[in-house]
Write a structure and sequence with these properties.
alpha/beta; TIM Barrel; 8 strands
């Protein structure tokens, strides 16, 4: 873990502008995001599962998620915000999860108050644990971090289950327990965004989604938005490329020349070649 990275994330969160962290699930996507100019990146649990051909239904273990944290964090310099599902158990499990994510190179993680196995936040059939079981998990997460700049995000999935009154109660309890940011998942409409801010706008909030353009979202005062649109773009555009190749026998893309050159530059081939030359003699 780089203390410079965690300190940079804290600095970004303390600034006046909303931080935008696009969804990624591998090192190449993370490098593309960083090259595009994003100051932080988000490792999606949905995408991490999908990259293994699995749905986001709590099928991946903590070790599998940490493996992906490490791969992505080592590919970029930008702070990495990570999905840590429910923390994979009770408060002691959460304590170990934070230690593992921190050691792997994450700058922040979020844990949620769903039962385990969890479900994607936008799927029906979610269940949440009692608030008094989640609060100790938030406390354990905060206590576990070695670096005080490591950011703990508490997510609640209670909106679809119990409604806004319970969401507000939980969010304030999680903040009181030490969470640096509050994350209400399952925001489906612009009216939900407005209600989110109306209910909890005095707290530091994270928004997940892409219902509005970034400049409009920024007006609501969110500290962070993790932007799911990049996950769907990866799915749609790769799917269309496969369909085009199958249908026409070719793709309207140059597979050599400048585009390939950009890719090998992004992956650091010149730097590795220079390193090899250094040790050739």
């Amino acid at each position: 873990m780089s203390t410079e990275t965690t300190a940079r994330l804290r600095q970004l969160l303390s600034g006046p502008e909303m931080l935008v962290a696009p969804f990624v699930y591998d090192g190449l996507q993370a490098k593309i995001a960083e090259q595009a100019g994003f100051d932080a990146i988000y490792m999606t649990g949905f995408g991490t599962a999908a990259a293994r051909g699995l749905p986001d239904l709590g099928l991946l273990t903590m070790s599998e998620m940490v493996q992906n944290v490490r791969a992505i964090a080592h590919a970029v310099n930008a702070p990495l915000i990570c999905d840590a599902d429910t923390g994979y158990g009770n408060p002691v499990n959460v304590w170990r999860t934070v230690r593992e994510y921190e050691e792997a190179g994450a700058a922040a993680l979020h844990i949620e108050d769903q039962v385990w196995p969890k479900r994607c936040g936008f799927l029906a059939g979610k269940q949440v644990i009692p608030m008094d079981q989640m609060v100790p998990k938030v406390r354990a997460a905060c206590d576990a971090r070695r670096d005080p700049n490591f950011v703990i995000i508490a997510r609640t999935d209670a909106l679809a289950v119990n409604g806004w009154e319970d969401v507000a109660r939980r969010a304030r309890a999680y903040r009181e327990a030490g969470a640096d940011l509050i994350f209400v998942d399952g925001i489906r409409t612009v009216e939900d965004i407005k209600r989110y801010v109306a209910e909890l706008g005095d707290l530091p909030l994270l928004y997940n989604g892409g219902l509005l353009p970034v400049p409009e979202l920024a007006k609501f005062g969110f500290k962070v938005t993790i932007h799911t649109g990049t996950l769907m773009a990866a799915f749609v555009r790769f799917r269309e490329a496969m369909r085009e190749l199958k249908r026409t026998g070719s793709l309207d893309l140059p597979i050599t020349g400048h585009l390939f050159g950009e890719l090998i530059e992004l992956l650091g081939v010149p730097a590795y070649e220079a390193l090899a030359k250094k040790y050739a003699d």
